[in-house]
Structures are given as structure tokens and as C-alpha cells.
What we know:
Layout: E1 11-12, E2 20-21, H1 49-55, H2 58-83, E3 88-89, H3 97-109, E4 118-119, H4 122-151, E5 157-159, E6 163-168, E7 171-180, E8 186-201, E9 206-213, E10 220-224, E11 228-234, H5 245-250, E12 254-263, E13 268-277, E14 281-283, E15 285-287, E16 291-293, E17 299-301, E18 309-311
Amino acid sequence: MGNPDKFEQYESQDPGLGTSYQKSVKRILNEDGSYNIKRIGTIRMLKDFYKYLVDLNAWKFGTFLVGSFLVANLLFAGIYCWIGTEHLHGINPNQNPFIAAYYFSAQTFTTVGYGAIAPIGNLTSFVAAMEAFVGLIAFAIATGLIYGRFSRPSTKIAFSHNVIITPHKDKMALMFKIVNQRNSVLLNTKVHVLLSMIDEDSSSNMITRKYYNIPLEVDFVRYFPLTWTLVHVINDDSPLYNINLSEIREKLSELLIIIEAFDETYSQTVIRKHSYAEHQWATGVKFKKNFSADDNGTIILNINEISDLEVLS
Length: 313
């Protein structure tokens, strides 16, 4: 890697990911932008249930809502059966009592109240009133959770599968591509890149991670409707100068990327994290162009081809 003092201008302080470890760490950020960190002693799910439900994926969240509704009505149906279904006026004698109590519970819980079945007596009426109250609270909470999930600003910025080192303007350069997968246009998009490399200290048996700021040819654009190829020129001042692919992987090099942009749909600033490490480094290739103009002068962008590579001739 040459003289380390040479790269002091690019060295960065610990960005909050740690510098010293007793064992090597494969990567700091996973490909999806989540941290490769197992946290012990955090707030348990039940103590932070709102965040857990807001962060839950759509399929599990839907299952939770439906399951909660079914379980709540099973509980109240059981209470009505315990009190006695003779206290529910209008039950069809040919219908299973528990099923009838369940349907009455569902109508009460949702405050629909068709009127076919009605409670008789103080105890049954009290339970029905409590169930209606619980139903109102439950639907208010569910509405808040659904709003919280849908109103959260999020990004759909896709990254190329690989970060490549390829010839560029008579030099070598590091490149990766990004594209906005939504139809909305991101404005004032800013990209910040850090390079992490390990440095083993044989005397202390410690593995130290060093961080380097990676300057880009262009790190800010006003408009971001197409793909954007981010380029870092590897000159003699770059931390990647005179390093081959094998050395990059031996040093467990990881490219840490943060993107900030203003999303016109949400009218808010959105942030996206990503990293490249291990097998994602590549050389001897270049990116294929994935947009062109048709006969009418319209630009055609193929988002699915963002990661397409071709071998250098």
C-alpha cells in the first residue's frame, strides 16, 4: 500500500463503527444496508412494541393484524359461552353456540351490530360494552400503525452488484452505479463514501480498521432521473493506489456508502446506506450503458441492466 503517511489527507476518524477488534470482521454493513452487529442489552420487543410493528415486513404485519383480530374474538366468544349463550338473544338454535357467540363477538368488536343477536342481562351486556371499547381502541392503534408504516419516507435506490476497478481517463478508477427504482425524481442527491481496511498488529494480536474518505469526481447532482456512475480516480494519492484485487480482499476492504437526497414525493430528505465487500470487488470489466434514446428522442432507461458488465478487450 506504500507509505501510509501519504494517505493522511484521506484518513477519517472512526465513523461510529469501531476500529479495534480481536478477530477479523467480514463486513460492517450488510448488502441491504443493515449493520452486521448483534446487539445485547437493547430494549426488548415488548418494551418497544410500536417500533417492532412499524419495522415488521408487510406479510408478517398483515398476519399479526388478522391473527390479533381472530384471537381477540375467540377470547370474547369463550367468555360469552362461559356466561351462557342463553344470555344472547336471537341465536339460531340450529347453529353451534360457540360459532354464534364468535360472530356476535366479531360484530360487537367492530361495532357493526347487525342486531340479529343481542345481549341479555347485566353481565353479558357489560362484557359486550367492554368488548366494543376494546375494539375501538384496537382499531385506533391499528390505524396509527398502518399510517406510521405508509407515511415513513423510504428510498428505492438500487446499487450495482459489483464495485469495479477499471481504466478511466488514462488512469485506473473505482466505480459503482446507482439508480432510483421509483418514478419520482430525487433532488439534491449527495453521496459520501468511506473505505475501510484492516491493519493487523502482530505485537498486540489486534486487528485495526482504518477509514479513508474516498473523493469522487462528482458527489452531488441536482437531479437524479437516470443511472449515476460514481467514480473515484485512483491516482498516487488514493488509498487504493498500487493495490491489486487480491490485496484488497486480504485487507477485508469494504466500501461504505451513504446517500442523502430530497424526495419530492415525501417532501423530505431520505437516506440510504450500502456497502461493498468480499466477492463484490471486481477488476478487468466495465459497466454496460443501460440507457439510450429511441427514434422519437425519448431516453429509455433499463433499470434491470444496472449491474451488467462486459469484459475489457
